[in-house]
């Protein structure tokens, strides 16, 4: 994959390298369009691959942070709950 190219351009580049020379450019473009539709990439076909990869990396970082925060907050809640129960048992 070449990050500066769009999804469509990357698939076309790959098609030109991998598909036989006996196929016309029109046939190769048709196969690329079919592939884009089959993979559900129509909405991002003209998006740069580097933008998509940046989005994936940012999304993964956000998920990790949210997971860590959720774990931390549940630990804090658990500790607070335990301390409240232990305080009540002394009263």
What does this structure look like?
This protein is an all-alpha fold and 91 residues long. It folds into 2 domains: 1-47; 53-91. It is built from 3 helices and no strands. It has helices spanning 7-18, 25-38, 49-90. Helix 1 packs across helix 2. The chain is elongated, with a radius of gyration of 25 Å.
Give average pLDDT, whole number.
Answer: 75
Query: Number of helical segments?
Result: 3
Q: Provide the number of structural domains.
A: 2
Question: What is the radius of gyration computed over CA atoms, rounded to a whole number of angstroms?
Answer: 25 Å
- Please tally the β strands and state the result: 0
Largest sheet: none
Q: Span between N and C termini?
A: 67 Å
Structural class: mainly alpha
> How much strand?
under 5%
Q: Can you give the helix content as a percent range?
A: over 70%
Reading the helices and strands in chain order gives HHH
Low-pLDDT parts are 84-91
Overall 3D shape: elongated
Give the helices and strands, then pairings.
Blueprint: H1 7-18, H2 25-38, H3 49-90
Helix pairs in contact: 1-2
Brief descriptors of the model:
91 residues; mainly alpha; 2 domains; 3 helices; elongated
Brief summary of the model shown:
The protein has helices at residues 7-18, 25-38, 49-90. By secondary structure, it is mostly helical.
